Amino acid sequence: MNKLIVRCVIYIVMLPAIFLLANRNIAHAGKSHTKKTSDILVTVIPVTALGTTFYLNDTEGRNQFYKSFFTNLGVTLGLKNLINKERPDGSDNDSFPSLHTSTAFQGAAFIRKRYHWKYALPMYMGAIFVGYSRINADKHYTEDVMAGAAIGFVTSYCFTTQFKGIRITPTADNGNYGVLISKKW
């Protein structure tokens, strides 16, 4: 019963936020086709990652998604506030790092780490397109997009484990390096 209540709360809170974000992004009719597509992908990629956890009834994965998603947001927005780098188009001082790119790469990296490359490949292609479009639209410099991609990638890899099968993790401790291989039973 508690799981049902938690799911209902998540749906009630998350779905309106997702629809508002998607509608806000789609509604900018004056933008180029590339920018509109990018604005849609930046919502679709993480929503697909989160939706996959519901589809597979993967509670552990959902919790890992939340941790990586909100850490990604905190790191990216924190850096934006600290660095104050002017955008190429001069519109404001929120250029570094790219939030669009970090969000897209966080979703793609989550799917890759949790579920496998074959599911993540289209998401990575979309995330790369998002980064390209941010540079093309004069909203970010290349280094802003690269930093956003790295943040999204690292936050997912820090909090996400493989769904099923063998897990391979590099280790380093006190000058000793190796690989930890484990399997869930």
Q: If you consult CATH, what is the topology? A: Vanadium-containing Chloroperoxidase, domain 1
Number of E strands: 2
Shape: globular
Largest sheet: 2 strands, antiparallel
Low-confidence stretches: 4-21, 23-30
Topology of this protein?
Layout: H1 2-26, H2 33-55, H3 59-83, H4 99-115, H5 117-136, H6 142-159, E1 166-173, E2 176-183
Antiparallel strand pairs: 1-2
Helix pairs in contact: 1-2, 2-3, 2-4, 2-5, 3-4, 3-6, 4-5, 4-6, 5-6
Name the descriptors.
69% helix, globular, 185 residues, two-stranded antiparallel sheet, 2 strands, mainly alpha, 6 helices, Vanadium-containing Chloroperoxidase, domain 1
Q: Could you walk me through the main structural features you see in this protein, from its secondary elements to its overall organization?
A:
By secondary structure, this protein is mainly alpha-helical. It has a single domain (2-183), classed as Up-down Bundle (Vanadium-containing Chloroperoxidase, domain 1). 69% of the residues lie in helices and 9% in strands. It has helices spanning 2-26, 33-55, 59-83, 99-115, 117-136, 142-159; strands spanning 166-173, 176-183. A two-stranded antiparallel ribbon has the order 1-2. The longest helix is centred in the N-terminal third of the chain and has 25 residues, at 2-26. Mean pLDDT is 80; it is low at 4-21 and 23-30.
